[in-house]
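Minutes, methods subgroup
Present: GH (chair), OT, SY

1. OT presented the first of two proteins processed in the latest run. Sequence and structure tokens recorded below as shown on screen.
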Amino acid sequence: MNEENQSSSLLKRNLSWVDLAMVLGGIFCIYIILAVGTIWLIERWPHERILMYFNAFLTQLSFALLIWTLKRMRHWKWADFGWHSVPLKNVLPKILGLYALTWIINIGYAIFLYQHGLTPPNTDVYTKLLGQATWYSLILNLVLAGVLAPLVEETLFRGVIFGSLQAYFGKWTSAVLSAIIFSALHFQAYGFFPRFMLGMVLVYLYDKYKSLYPAIALHALNNIVATLIAASLPI
């Protein structure tokens, strides 16, 4: 796709302030409703881990339904969300290089926190989900973190939110805002900064190649490696 067609697609993908506020409100409501529902069920059903998996999968499916609803109501094509093909050989070195950069940031951040006496909370939902070293839980985690989350979250946070914010702010202001939203909506204070930096890297890939595919690939790689490490299995 040439630059003129890409620009036209970007214009069709922009949301008004009202529409964007409704999308963000929908995302927030999905988190709150599912969180309250999960807490309510945990008090009545002792299988907490099953409910956490159910919450995680239902969150991604709810996001997918939000995207599908937006697509139907606005009569968008998938290309309007940023689903443009790009040759893998052209983007793979950049993906791997940026992934290495995120590791450097994560290690530096972990060292900084450790030196100040801070450690990840054992009760964190991601620790509970990713720390179960069984093949059954590993498959569930890989499907959730390595497939569903990259596909759905990149379409929503980069394709819809970042793409729409660019109509009202400059590129980097939009990148910062979308990365903040992406990290904050994970509701994990300890990992806010590295997830924010990951969001910035994902925005950079999306903006550079005008395609979601490179961002999805890096997001998936990041989550798959994190899943295998948390499960204490060899990569």
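2. SY then presented the second protein from the same run.
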Amino acid sequence: MSLQSDVEDLWQRYDDGLSVDDATDDDADVLEEFLQALEAGEIRAAEKRNGEWEANEWVKQGILLNFGLRETEPREYGGVTYHDVLPLRDTADLYERGTRNTPDGTTIRRGAYVGGDAILMSPAFVNIGAHVGDGTLVDSCDTVGSCAQIGEDVKLGANTLIGGVLEPVENAPVIVEDGVSLGAGCRVTSGFVVGENSVVGENTLLTPRIPVYDLVEEEVIYGELPPERRAFTRFVESSVSDHDLIDGGAYKPAVVATSIEEETLEGTEREDALRE
């Protein structure tokens, strides 16, 4: 049987009532093989098919099984006792691929993939099922949520939050495609897709509930930022502006997307040079 069929069979048994106490050594072996495949980049929580990102439901099921069929245990890390169902990820393979992770706060959970020549600055957290591509920078105080898919040569500015999407299993997670630069303090949540080679200004919130005013195609879209855009937050008038209780109007956040100007690209290239 393949790993996928093993996980799907285990999921069906779990859905039918399989508990931690009922799980066998063979079941534990399936869960361990699954985590190893995630960490090696052999399987992913989502993949791009025919131009659209789609969740791999069985992979998200495998992640949920690793919570449902394990017990919380006391564990040790850096002289500190913590309690979790999984230990932290072994990072020896990162050194072999030229990736840097600084001490005292860089936390990579089991089941996370980190590519080669990447940089993870402390404190940063990469959750189970996340995929961080080659050459990507995860800066200080960044969180990469469960199942988030971060492309190659991405720059996540300090204090950036990439949300996690575990359930429902059919929903695609947050996607940040190749070559994207997110400014400090950005938030990307709820399965939003950031198109490749885009540059996003600091403190921008990207979520399907906030409209993106794409001035390139002259349309309003939700849930995605097209490739090769420069995006930033602006405020537009809210529908509650006419309410008697509101004096002077009300405004809601929106994202404005324009074409990438030459000076924007030059600025990001200069920043890249500083990080080499």
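Chair's summary of item 2: The first strand starts at residue 46 and ends at 49.
Next meeting: continue with the remaining queue.
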